[in-house]
Amino acid sequence: MTENLTGESHRPGRIEVVCGSMFSGKTEELIRRMKRAKFAKQKVEIFKPAIDTRFSEEDVVSHDQNVIHSTPIDSSGSILLLASDIDVVGIDEAQFLDDGLVDVCNQLANRGVRVIIAGLDMDYKGAPFGPIPALCAIADEVTKVHAICVKCGSLAYVSHRLVNNDHRVMLGEKEEYEPLCRDCYQKAIKEEKINHE
Ligand SMILES: [Zn+2]
After folding, report:
1. C-alpha span between 102 and 98 (Å, rounded)
2. Is residue 34's pLDDT more than 60?
3. Which amino acid positions bind ATP, per UniProt (predicted)?
4. Is 149 annotated among the ligand-binding residues?
5. Kind of pairing, strands 44-49 and 14-20?
6. Which of 6, 118, 146, 162 is the most buried (most CB within 10 A)?
7. Is 93 among the domain residues?
8. d(CA 146, ligand 1 centre) in Å
């Protein structure tokens, strides 16, 4: 509704979080919002942790020619240095950034920047992931997006890891995860325990 009332050009500084499991369309929603801002002649840029190498180095790949420039960063503090003349700052895969991101986003919003953050809300064990929970707390607006459970078709809640690996930060191929609803996730965990005994 806010979109219709104010358009894209005169939004004050604010923090928006788009979170959810894998396959939930977080990045698509981030890009949608960034594109609308770009159409409104806003200066936009997406930052993402350098750890995320699935996309091309420089640009967030969207499926048409309207590519939005993206910059890989090593720490949240770099955003303050690099975003000095940007109207709308997008941050993708924010769960991999440090906790300093919370303060960085507040500083940006306080000086009039619109900040849009996309990230995983939970890791593959269902635990809150990185700075995302704190960002949800300080955000002006939180959008939780959902994938579809591959077992039953309900709304998914977590990205269940299919391979046996305990590292929390595991990037890579999406074949290694499946979106599951709470019910199906509980069943899958029980089965795994039985198989390991
Ligand atoms: Zn299910």
Report:
1. 9
2. yes
3. 20-27, 92-95
4. yes
5. unpaired
6. 118
7. yes
8. 12
